[in-house]
Amino acid sequence: MTFFVVVLAFAIIMILRGMTRDHMISPEDLTPDQAHLIQVVRAEDMIRQAGISKQGCLFVAVEDDGTSRNGLAEYLVETITPTDLVNRVVVVEVKVNNDLTRSKELGIAFVK
Question: Which domains does the chain have, with CATH numbers?
Answer without folding.
Answer: 23-110 (3.30.300)
